[in-house]
Amino acid sequence: LEEFFGVRLDKKYQRADWSARPLAPELLAYAALDTAHLLPLRDRLAEELQTLGRLAWVEEECRRLEAAEPAEDHGPSVWKVKGAHGLGPRDLAVLQRLLEVRDRYAREWDRPAFKVLSNRTLLEWAARPPRSRGAVLQTEGAGKALLARIADDVVAAVEEALALPPEAWPRRETTAYLPLTDREEARLKRLKRARSRLARRLGLDPGLLVNSATLERLARLDPAEAPGWLATNLKAWQQEVVGPELLAALSTAG
Question: Which residues contact 135 (CB under 8 A, 6 or more apart)?
Answer without folding.
Answer: 155
